[in-house]
Amino acid sequence: MKNVRTVAANTFREAVRDRVLYNLVFFALLMMGAAILVGQISIGIEESVIISLGLTAISVIGLFIAVFIGVGLVSKEMDKRTLYALLAKPVERWEFLLGKFCGLVMTLTVNTAAMAVGLYLALWAVKHTLEKSDAWVLVAVYLILLKLALIVALAMLFSCFTTPFLAILFTAGIYVAGVFAGALRTMQAVDINPGAMTLMRGISYLLPNFGNFNVMGAVAHGRGVPGALVWQATLYAVCYGAVVLAGAAAIFSRRNLK
Amino acid sequence: MATPAIEIEHLSKEYPYGFLNLKKKKSLEDLSMRVETGEVFGFLGPNGAGKSTTIKLLVRLIFPDGGTARILGKSIDDVSMHRDIGYLPEQPYFYDYLTAAELLDYFARFHRLTATDRQTRVQNMLKKVGLETAKKIQLRKYSKGMLQRVGLAQAILHDPQVVILDEPMSGLDPLGRREVRDIILELKKEGRTVLFSTHILSDAEMLCDQVGVIVGGKLRGVGTPGEMVGIKTQGMEILFEVAEGKNLPLLAKATRTGERYRVQFPEEQVYGAIEQLKAAGARILSVAQIKPTLEEFFMNLVEADRAQANAVEVSGK
User: Fold this and answer.
1) Closest residue of B to A2, CA-based?
2) Mean pLDDT of successive 10-residue segments in chain A (258 residues)?
């Protein structure tokens, strides 16, 4: 695992030096603007608006980083041939892949944690206090992070066998489909034949169910998140992510680098 | 019999191309060769001959369609073998957000070196390749020649037994080329095995114990540079000076450069020519065998390969 740690630390260093964390400035400005504006236009729902806006921003910014940098993790190294000297060292290809994944997840964790601090500061600015129930925001942030880790794994899988452009399209497509996976499973339609319905259900179970990680509505309205949901979502992300990464490693381990 | 440093048996590689990658182009065909321990081996061939393909197969950047290879007795499929090899890619490019010292330290970490050992080796290596003063500059500001030096440093940082260099002189000025040559000779002196690809034949002649010539994906010959070019002499050459106005029939065939004449004969006529020159009072400066240079040998092979390829194209086979 030492090799994985070494690659992960370098991936994090790359993200920092390539100014990926500069998005935090944008988030800080958004939160400051929201805090000022919300205080003036909304009465009684400031907290809910700030939490919804903050969590949405954390999710969207993280999504951009996960998709675009996730796809580039492997493809950029292959295009620029920086990978050649590294793979001639005693490093297994799966170690490289896992290291890259961990490095970006580390970056996303720091980024998301910093944004969560910004969100709490904005909450404090509008309420002048923080309550115990505000701790649920952290749970929502944690679930967003799990979702982002899963997206990074998918982006890496696609970038192992296709072009960066197609990998971005595939990842974005799977994300959108995954958001509606839950709805697809429970859909009842009379005008679709039973065979197609079964096929659609089957596909919906193969798709990552991103609905599992969305507790934004409940948290914004001060409701708690059941512990079982958090554990199940964690287990789901770990298992699904492991399968996706294993697939990526299997493809990448036999890929010819030109 | 000692285990060879590198042993290649019937290695083949095809690249798919065309719509849906349905067509295949042979890049390497049934390559078999050995590089003995402690030897400097030059891998020669024109662009696209299969040199880099062979090297990439050895370091597992690509995978063979057939055949096997071993380095220091271990299969190339065994990643632990990479502890004992150093590799410089062709036209190397590294993480440009790192400094040279950071990059070398990063690569050294994969070789299980202690922090102190890493630091010492990185400093020594930067000094060796002449980058000590530029060690804190990010690689994005490095010239091509400087990147080549960093590449060389990362290849030999961990004292590998076998060093594989893909076009190590490429992009270097004459001074840089000389430094690389010195490093290769130093590695040889330390008993390490060096395999390097090049199309600069003078470098190969100067450095190599053995050379292998590859053209069109096929190995066309392996031997010492002398063996490769000097199996058969093409005749003799006499260099001489003679006073003006002498009636010497062989002057008609001679080439004059300043005061000196140079004339070539088949080997069996050389004694007769020497007698003629003695009789005319000429001063013989040298009598030497005419051998094709490595360059001529190489060009003949390349031209023969192109002629064969054209013939196949014309006949449609």
Assistant:
1) B110
2) 94 88 79 75 76 90 92 91 93 96 95 91 83 87 96 96 94 93 75 80 88 87 87 96 96 90
Burial A181-191 (b: 16+ CB within 10 A, else e): bbebbeeeeee
**In a mutagenesis test of the B interface, which of A13, A80, A89 is the best target, namely the one with the most B β-carbons within 10 Å?**
A89
Substitution target from B78, B95, B99, B167 for chain A, most A beta carbons within 10 A? B95
Q: In CATH, what is the architecture of B6-230?
A: 3-Layer(aba) Sandwich (3.40)
Nearest CB to A90; choose among B79, B88, B95:
B79
Note the CATH number of domain B236-289. 3.30.70
Q: Measured between beta carbons, which residues in chain A are less than 8 angstroms from residue B94?
A: 82, 85
CA distance A175 to chain B (A): 28
What's the confidence (pLDDT) of residue A8? 96
**Which of B61, B63, B106 shows the shortest C-beta gap to A10?**
B106
Say if A173 falls within a structural domain: yes
The pTM of this model reads: 0.84
Burial of B247 (0-12, 13-18, 19+ CB in 10 A): exposed
In a domain, A40, yes or no: yes
Q: Which domain range does residue A173 map to?
A: 2-252
Domain locations in chain B as residue ranges: 6-230, 236-289
Query: Which of B63, B95, B107 is facing A89, going by the closest CB pair?
Result: B107
Tell whether ipTM is more than 0.90.
no
Separation in Å, CA B146 to CA A100, B170, B266, B280: 27, 11, 49, 58
Question: Which has the closest alpha carbon to B217: B28, B23, B80?
Answer: B28
What does residue B152 show for φ and ψ, rounded to 5 degrees? Answer: -65, -40
Residue-wise pLDDT for B98-154, tens only, equals 999 999 999 999 998 899 999 999 999 999 888 888 888 899 998 888 888 899 999
A81 is written with which tokens?
A: 């041939």
